[in-house]
Design brief:
The protein has 354 residues and is an all-alpha fold. The chain has helices spanning 23-40, 43-59, 63-79, 83-99, 103-119, 123-140, 143-160, 163-179, 183-199, 203-219, 224-241, 244-260, 264-280, 284-300, 305-322, 325-337. This is Tetratricopeptide repeat protein. It comes from Streptomyces maoxianensis. InterPro entries: TPR-like_helical_dom_sf, TPR_rpt.
């Protein structure tokens, strides 16, 4: 039995805010509470309200503001020796680093956050930080390295009845299964995540689950209209909650569905929209994936093969630099599908994290 989902990152005077609160509302209330906390002189409340401000800025794609906010929250927490608040600030900073494509920094900050959470007795901060480390490894494609950690965190979340964390872990493991070809298992886990999220009133978690279901319905079952319907439902949630990054990933998946349905002109338009969205929030991983989709769509629309090869070569270098192994494999597969020779040996990878 799962309890109603709650937003553990909204703390102190903001603890009553719903997990489904609009991010714009969180930013407004967090900024107000931060101002009041500074006037009152409560450093713990300054650190906790600063965390909410940092997270709101991050989810809205305000990279510079988010960076300043989490660092300020950490410094304040450290000044009063609040290990739990320090852990949460580092978790926010690590999550932002992953969003920006700084994966090595993300792992380091999240590892420090997990250690501080454990030392400070904040089991939730520890769990969120370990989850962040697992997700960082997963998006790089290091599945074997993080599968056990995902499953450990899922077991812990189930045992505590934490709906939001259970949904996150299910979605992470489902994505690993999907990326390794186990569509049936992935679909079952995405569907369980969607059901738990709905019952626990976790709209963000449900939106991500719907995106995962739509992906498999499109890739495995070749049902683009059903997939697009699921994505429209997820898009509505993301729009209402001002989930800028999640909305962009939802639009990218729409491009994938249209591409698989051979609706290449519509796919091109979707990828171009998505590319602009990711660039606006400085999210290089999403930008790289949108670029890959756009290159493939343009190739099917008759673009010159030499230009396609040049774009794929540049993209492969960027993927190696960021350390996105799975996405690099997808780019190599695209080269083969489009009849473009592999990159010469020794090209790409030197600057990557592989």
């Amino acid at each position: 039995m799962y309890s109603k989902a709650f937003a553990a990152e909204y703390q102190g005077a903001l603890r009553s805010m719903s997990v489904n609160s609009s991010v714009a509302d969180v930013l407004a209330k967090g900024t107000e509470q931060l101002r009041e906390a500074k006037l009152s002189g409560s450093q713990q409340e300054v650190a906790r309200s600063g965390l909410a401000v940092a997270e709101a800025h991050r989810r809205l794609g305000h990279v510079k503001e988010a960076d300043r906010a989490w660092k300020a929250s950490y410094r304040t927490a450290r000044s009063v020796g609040d290990l739990g608040a320090m852990a949460w600030a580092l978790w926010s900073g690590g999550t932002l680093a992953r969003q920006r494509g700084a994966l090595a920094l993300a792992r380091r900050l999240l590892g420090l956050a997990a250690d501080l959470g454990e030392r400070g007795g904040d089991v939730v901060a520890r769990g969120y930080s370990l989850a962040g480390m697992a997700e960082t490894g997963r998006i790089q494609g290091d599945y074997e390295a993080v599968r056990a950690l995902h499953e450990q965190l899922l077991a812990e979340a189930r045992r505590r009845g934490e709906a939001r964390h259970t949904v996150w872990a299910l979605e992470g493991i489902a994505q690993i299964h999907r990326n390794t070809g186990s569509y049936d298992t992935a679909l079952a886990m995405f569907e369980e995540a969607a059901e738990i999220a709905e019952k626990a009133d976790d709209r963000r978690g449900r939106a991500w689950a719907l995106r995962g279901i739509a992906d498999i319905v499109s890739a495995r079952d070749d049902e683009p209209d059903r997939a697009l319907g699921l994505l429209r439902e997820a898009e509505l949630i993301c729009s209402e909650m001002h989930l800028t990054s999640a909305l962009a990933y939802n639009h990218k998946m729409r491009g994938n569905v249209l591409f698989r349905a051979r609706r290449y002109e519509e796919a091109r338009q979707a990828y171009e929209q998505t590319l602009a969205e990711f660039r606006a929030i400085s999210e290089p991983r999403g930008e790289a994936l949108a670029r890959l989709g756009l290159v493939k769509a343009l190739a099917h629309l008759g673009r010159d093969q030499a230009e396609t090869a040049a774009d794929l070569g540049e993209l492969c270098l960027d993927l190696d630099r960021i350390g996105l192994h799975h996405a690099r494999d997808m780019a190599d597969k695209a080269r083969a599908e489009l009849g473009i020779p592999p990159m010469p040996s020794g090209t790409g990878g030197e600057g990557g994290l592989r």
